[in-house]
Amino acid sequence: MESTWLVLLSLALGLAVGGGFVTLLYVAEHHGKRASEVINPAVPDGIDQVLDALESAGLVLDPSNNVIKTSPGAVSMGLVVNQQLTHPELLALARGVRRTGEPVSEDLVLSRGPFGDASMHVRVRLARLGSRYVLLLAEDRTEAFRLDEVRRDFVANISHELKTPIAAVGLLAEALGHAADEPVQVRRFADRLTTEAGRLGRLTQEIIELSRLQAQDALRQPELLDIDEIVGAGVDQNRVVAEADRITIAVGRKSRAKVFGDERLLVMAVHNLVANAVHYSTSGARVGVGARVTDGVVEITVTDQGIGIPEGDLDRIFERFFRVDQARSRNTGGTGLGLSIVKHVVQIHGGDIRVWSQPGSGSTFTIRLPEATHPALAATGDTP
After folding, report:
1. In terms of C-beta distances under 8 Å and separation of at least 24 residues, what long-range contacts does 371-376 make, across chains too?
2. Is residue 33 part of a domain?
């Protein structure tokens, strides 16, 4: 009897211990699942796909402000490094959204990356995502701000550039009235008035040309053109001025190259480069103009022996109204738009322009255009 009770007691203890062990396993599993949920929180369905499809930056923050989901744009903009937001301003906005529950939109200027000196203009919007998370969307508007600045600068520069010749015309006209009985003075003022009127006319015309070139339909009906004729026409327009300053314009041998494009625009581009070379050359100097074809690329080169361009200005010389030598440019009637026009002409023809220069040794500008191929040329057996 006693042995039977011992057996029953042992079974009871075994069941109790087993049950407790099972209970411990359940509790441990339950806590493990909770811990897993905290470590790997689940976000609403579809967020991954939305973030992957975003062209702008997007990310999701957990209650501890860890980044648990992110789009490629957020990483490339430098908003996220090692699953953490890199900008305190964004963290402050996230805390505010989590506290109030209200979405916010802000325009911020942020550094591009944690160690970058460059800044970016960003439009951000933050909102609650469910009860635990915050969704942050960011749009890089740096380029839009840059274009706004360019437009403002353009308007300011136009106002400044027009003010000088307009004021000069007014003063000269007034001086003519006071000098009506002095033929010599009248002639002198009339000559200056003609010069200022011409300068004003050139500036107005170049502004109009630049506006046309920036239109999408600037090159509507391209034609097959002879580059040697283009170069010849651009050079001829500058011979009178060059000879007056005893500057020699030497043209290289024929290239027989052909391109598709607008004859008037390409002649204007060559003319502007040659005119610059003449204006910035000293008396008795030489300007070289040549054209050649290399691996399907037509190159038009203008080389001068002028004052040259400082290295720090090479990246800016194609900007509107930028002048390397302000005083000399004004004396020669330059508008500061010539090289900008050349750049736009070349770009709409599918080419580019390059420059080499050394102060005191001169400059070389090279227009590069795609060579044209044409069925008529192949049929006749001619080669461009």
Report:
1. 371/257, 371/258, 371/259, 371/293, 371/296, 371/297, 371/298, 372/224, 372/225, 372/258, 372/259, 372/260, 374/224, 374/258
2. no
Rounded to two decimals, the pTM is 0.52
* Closest residue by Cα to residue 237 from 289, 284, 309: 289
Q: Which of 185, 213, 241 is the last residue of a domain?
A: 213
Domain that holds residue 65: 47-140
Same domain, 381 and 255: yes
pLDDT tens for 235-275 read: 998 998 899 889 999 999 999 999 999 898 899 899 989 99
158 class by beta-carbon count within 10 Å (0-12 exposed, 13-18 middle, 19+ buried) = middle
Three-class secondary structure of residue 273 per DSSP: helix
Question: At 216, which amino acid appears?
Answer: Q
The amino acid occupying position 3 is: S
Q: Mind listing the pLDDT tens digit for each residue in 128-174?
A: 988 889 999 999 888 788 777 766 666 666 665 666 667 777 777 77
Return d(Cα 260, Cα 373) in angstroms, integer.
9
Q: Which tokens in the block code for residue 379? A: 């049929």
